[in-house]
Protein 1
Amino acid sequence: MTSSLPISVDPTILRDVMDGRWAHVRRDARENLRDPDFAPVYGETVQEARERVTRMAKKLADSGRVGLGFPKQYGGEDDSGGSVTSIEMLAFGDLSTMVKAGVQWGLFGGALQLLGSARQHDKYLRDVMSFDLPGCFAMTETGHGSDVQQLRTTCTYDPETQCFDLNTPHQAARKDYIGNAAKDGRMAVVFAQLITGGKNHGVHAWLVPIRDENGDPMPGVTIGDDGAKAGLNGVDNGRLTFDHVQVPRDMLLDRYGQVAEDGTYTSTIENETRRFFTMLGTLVRGRVSVGGSASSATKVALDIAARYGNVRRQFAAPGDDREIVINDYLVHQRKLLPALATTYALHFAQGELVETMHDVQTAVHARGEQIDEEKQRELESRAAGLKVAQTWHATSTIQMAREACGGAGYLQENRLPHLKADTDVFTTFEGDNTVLLQLVAKGLLTGYRDTFGSLDGWGRVGFIADMVRETVLERTAARALISRLVDAVGRDDEAPMLDRGWQLKMFEFREKHSLEGAIRRLRKNSTTEGMAPFDMFNDVQDHVLKTAQTHIDRIVLEAFVAGIERTSDPDAKALLEKLCDLYALHTIEADKAWFLEHGQLTATRAKTLTSTVNQLVKELRPHIITLVDAFDIPQEWKACQILEEEETRQEVMAARDAELRVQAGEQADTPDATATDLEIAPAQ
Amino acid sequence: MTSSLPISVDPTILRDVMDGRWAHVRRDARENLRDPDFAPVYGETVQEARERVTRMAKKLADSGRVGLGFPKQYGGEDDSGGSVTSIEMLAFGDLSTMVKAGVQWGLFGGALQLLGSARQHDKYLRDVMSFDLPGCFAMTETGHGSDVQQLRTTCTYDPETQCFDLNTPHQAARKDYIGNAAKDGRMAVVFAQLITGGKNHGVHAWLVPIRDENGDPMPGVTIGDDGAKAGLNGVDNGRLTFDHVQVPRDMLLDRYGQVAEDGTYTSTIENETRRFFTMLGTLVRGRVSVGGSASSATKVALDIAARYGNVRRQFAAPGDDREIVINDYLVHQRKLLPALATTYALHFAQGELVETMHDVQTAVHARGEQIDEEKQRELESRAAGLKVAQTWHATSTIQMAREACGGAGYLQENRLPHLKADTDVFTTFEGDNTVLLQLVAKGLLTGYRDTFGSLDGWGRVGFIADMVRETVLERTAARALISRLVDAVGRDDEAPMLDRGWQLKMFEFREKHSLEGAIRRLRKNSTTEGMAPFDMFNDVQDHVLKTAQTHIDRIVLEAFVAGIERTSDPDAKALLEKLCDLYALHTIEADKAWFLEHGQLTATRAKTLTSTVNQLVKELRPHIITLVDAFDIPQEWKACQILEEEETRQEVMAARDAELRVQAGEQADTPDATATDLEIAPAQ
């Protein structure tokens, strides 16, 4: 029923396909940052972890590798995509180090770079890059996380003093979970409501010194410590409270909004909400980095679980002496392989996203072009959607990998506990996943044309009126190929399930139908007498979020198809095709009820679907190790004891079992390799 | 479409319904162990945690509450169910303390009690109870966890010396993950292959001193440390290796197998495999405790997330100033309420299981009756199934709760990180969940009549021949009621979804059909030419495990129905009925594809199912806090900062927001409570 796979595929060819446009950045990291310093350290106290990670940040700065995303005139390379890729590479190692770097150069440095003026760049950017000026990105408040537009901190201009008065009005408005705040930060980019002449102009950002040369808090600044967290304990998250702190006028990051000496406010973007989203939009890099980093952590977890499952034996087959390796069990394959397939799919989608981001940001920030708002909006939606997909995939896959390694997976020395604890927050930071799904949904509902409504209870109710009637799906990459494949599908209920066109068509149909249904229901609610505006949206929230999910699934599948299209080696291509079949069919299987309910699968075909997925995992089983080899994760970064011990241990066990049977007076009917053939690690 | 709920329900009545047969044990714990010592402590080093937990174990011993499960003549109460209930109560607090207690009095003490002789009880039991003799349960080996029958450690009798020679043949046979081993244990119950007269009689257990009075390892014993783990760091897990350690003959725990001075082996149970399972079966208490403890941890997580969601606000409704509490969002309700419903369902199922276990064990161990093998086998299957259901439910629910609390959920001070990390191992210890599902499945396939085949590659191939042809489901509790309800259902495709009979019928149908399908496929494979025995089973492994899952679901639903039947208060009963509807329909919804595929739902009814679940969560929304109040978890045990702060903070925020709007020059159109009305926690 399916083309057969080559017996073996060269993982280095697969790796090269996956490495993509920033292959040089990945190679550089693998070759030059492979020392064990970048691996996590286990059993540290919070203080030890923080101190080590501060040292690592300095080490990274000294390596000269943190400047990729910064302008050339400050020693950077104006390479936005490269900077995200290098964060993704760091995420194979210690995740605290990655986050610390992300805070310093991505968030803090990025805000200064993208929201600040040339004068401010001249003054601070070099020190930021060298880590001589450690800084914070102080956006989130205890009471407001994802809803940034509603921040409560105020910064009020006084023409008398030529200063802003930065103030935290109440405890819920304190800045919270701020990286670099508890220990290292000397300055912070603080987001607050800009008030001048008695009018609120919305959220803006200021550079605010928070510690003096001696490391003591500046007057009016109170610094708290978030203390021990579930993970990422090398990052010093803290709380910042401002008691009428005087901030000089020139500390406003004023690229998108300026305050004159007399307090007059000016901006090239008149609409306040639009200005806010434009400012926020420049910071999309952080979200893209989190998604990519989540995928790196996922790859490490799969690498560990796949290799462990290939040597760990459990229960003997009937009539056999030797026990079976757990990767040979169907249910174990059903855990590992769909997770691997999804990881590959997401990898290609992330690659595409980074390219888009790079091109959009390079046009605006390096070449000084106007922002293409539609492209920017689409970029943000993609970034949000893929952040959601990659971080939830990380959470579930790392959990699965931990369980797949049993007790060994629970010991810190085997890495999985750190992977789990460190990545756990990814689903809720840089935007809570549920809120981000809502953002994606909103983009779909309005065809990106709504004028930047807020993200509150589903935007202004009125937006339904503007709703795009015709929900034509924009295909992503490999458009021509995808159209050809989809058009070639005959009758849906007869198409072979391994027909890529049928798979694509199913993904498209589900998204389109789901979106149309959501629109229909919203319309109906909006004309329902007596229904409160909130309820109109809340009533269909589950439907709308599901629509967003189906959209993301399609983007990911199309990216996988485009990635395969670029693969020239026939063996690597064949393996990727098979893996893509698994991704597509497993995704359809996971939502089988929907396809049955909507007449896209008959009961008979639904059963065929299950057996086809089983057949695919069986065919892919011999390639499990190749698939993780292709991630090419340096051994030094894995910091996993069991990978080093397990193989020897299992060989030894088999040999000694033969002895044991003799000792126990049994017939050693099929003697295995004897002890002397092997390198023995005797007990004690 | 549904009976309406009372406006409010008294949580103490609900609590009393849930407290059940061992209400006195629960009350005692809530009243007398509520001091904060039992709460977890955050930010400790591994060493600090271990020292604290050792002190807590001593404190527990001194409280006299650890003896419940031990015989009366040693100061216990012969109350097996009580002992499990008290572990379940401990699990609301620090989970390391619970596990330490479980190791000492459940596993170590339990093995001594249930596998040892009166002579051995006289000698050791009092010291075990007082914690003067801390001990280990040394079963698992690095290379063999769930497959206990294949342990590699040997214990060989020598009539010359009247001693056994206990030996670890190779590294993979070292005892691993053993609680109490790394620091405290002075003795261990060691499981090993008993060899005498050149013949292996299978796995038995010995009492083996591992440390001398000074705490140094005994000669021949090497003790390793498993080091830092993901969680449970107050428990000192370690590794034990035995280098030909001499163990006197009378240290064999010889209730089920004896070795005479001359080395003659005797046992009342001739069949080796059967003897092995009889011995193991007595230890079912551990598995029951883990399931119950997982549920306690789940309740704490839900308590925190439900209360947080009731005060945390996010985004304003259109046309409204005040932001919406997140419990009012449909998607949030969709997360919390099905998890709550499932937690209640599992609570009733666990209660039933504990009663069964108590009755079976009391008959044998306190009254000296013969083991009723069928009952024992069924008990083990139930214990395995509910351990699986409760531990996986804990893993997913605690994860959900963490995410539902956003950044706050990631801080250790808010408990959720500890809940997550501590319970994570529950899915793989006391039997890996996947292996336990296999055990449940095997019980179903053979109708408990197979003669204790091993759990290897699905037992002997031959067992298919013995397979019970007619798969009549044994109904559990409330048999008469359930039969009546099921029989009263009219045409399936017309029955209202809130008809309990229809729900029960769906659960039954799915289990029966799934089981029959598995049997049919196994039969077919067993007659397929050239199919290897392993493949016959492996080919249907996913189907078979799914069958086990459906069986567990039915048991749980029936227990919930029985629990409601015992509820006399009409308001409490109405609320539980509604919650049971949600459990049943959410479970059907989660497997909707199966019901569609098998003609049990039409597409139209499948859509009705979704809207019915949405309707149920909406109706239950006002009772969320009542539902967690009914868990009656002492505040002292929760150790959650945010529960203490959040309410005040939100009120303050609302008040100050009004001020802010004035300050910003906006109209404060609907002034909220002013600051002076409230107890203010001003910034700084």
Note: The mean pLDDT of chain A is 89.
Protein 2
Amino acid sequence: MDWYYEPYKEITAVGIRIEGLVHAERSAYQEIKVYDTVGHGRLLTLDGMVMLTELDEFVYHDLITHLPLCIHADPRRVLVIGGGDGGSVREILKHPSVEQVVLCELDERVTRVCQRYIPSVAGHLEDPRVALNFADGVEFVRAHEAAFDVIVVDSSEPEGPAAGLFRRAFFADLRRALRPGGVIAAQTESPFYSAATVRDVYNELRSVFREVHPCFGPVPTYPGGTWTWALASDTRTPAMLDRARAAALRCRYFNLDIAAGAFALPNFIRELVDPAPAR
Amino acid sequence: MDWYYEPYKEITAVGIRIEGLVHAERSAYQEIKVYDTVGHGRLLTLDGMVMLTELDEFVYHDLITHLPLCIHADPRRVLVIGGGDGGSVREILKHPSVEQVVLCELDERVTRVCQRYIPSVAGHLEDPRVALNFADGVEFVRAHEAAFDVIVVDSSEPEGPAAGLFRRAFFADLRRALRPGGVIAAQTESPFYSAATVRDVYNELRSVFREVHPCFGPVPTYPGGTWTWALASDTRTPAMLDRARAAALRCRYFNLDIAAGAFALPNFIRELVDPAPAR
């Protein structure tokens, strides 16, 4: 037995007790590893960064999917950028209105490894409503116009292969790829340890979308243990959430209270994400 | 430079990059250490467990003080059990109605070390409204009846010197030490890694108080990064929060949105803290 440690910016580290390495490979894009752990179920890392553990992945996947889908009036076509582990797809498929979920993951090996070794997360990718695309998310979005009701940007950190997914040009392409009434959700990093990144991302989002609403929640195996996500749209706001559809979902994190409470921001996060005051 | 690691139940670990040891001593009760860190300001540990860092202590101290004080109709006399670092006292003193804060800390050395090395947290203990008592919290509470409007149980983990602060007999003594209309707040551990403890504590609290309301929030340097606290009373509920008093506070975490949002519990926490269903 040993410890897996992910140091973050030489400030903090997440430690997870592991029982053994289940799988390791270097794909064309990154190093993929799956571990068995003592208290976290299976652990997936990419280039030494925790992507998910079976203990806590439900928080991230609940917030990044059920919020935009319940805020949208009638989500039928949904795109997931990244999210090769299949956790976002699993949650999106709980919504009866959804006719198709397109997954656009850069690295096919991530998906294949998760299908084989983490079926609790990836086990819904063979659903007939799911279309798998192994392609660059930036290019895929650029090639689509008015094609999706909801787009979920389920990306890794802005360092590395996902850097392009945090820039204004990408957000503008997302907006163009949405049908009228469309909503996006994106992960937007740690408010404790990545304050500058959080501030930048919200400035970029606000320069593209009329409505930008940050929310937050716990992810114990990510640096700082608390994460932020953005909901963005030109027409839809969290206040428009369909309470009947939200109440019908069976989730480990999301419920009607969370649908409001996740947007109740503490002052130190407000300072990062609120629009800059006019000078 | 080195890393400070706190393993927790051989499942998870919190890592904090340290620049040096500022102070170390063994008191009559425990080993007290203060470190300088790279990104967390000063770090206080007791018996190798993180008690606070200057980066994130505001979350814990805001939630454990401003919620009960704003829920109480007119808090004048406040007791803090534990809390030798002075952070809870600092926040309680922000409330103009408070005439006296009694701090009952078992280990005087914790307070003296914090006054010397972490003045950003302990710097308000010389306020004339503060009365310091270095005594056992269980005995101190037992010796008081109808004496306090709010009692804050700002304790360390249930293993070690603070074990008695998580038991039914202590909660019954707390209830007797409250004046009519009184409210208590207590830290109630990690919902991710101490599920059984959380469940036990809420069962005990519900067997003593008519109103028991759990809330949660982020503490990145505690195991799991998310913590729970209980508000308990016979007469007061979070819905009775004084919005004008809450809005007048200047805090880094607490605000009117949080006063509601902190009680919006995800399903996996509800399952731990809700009353057991009748059979």
Note: The domain at 2-53 of chain B is CATH 2.30.140.10 (Spermidine Synthase; Chain: A, domain 2).
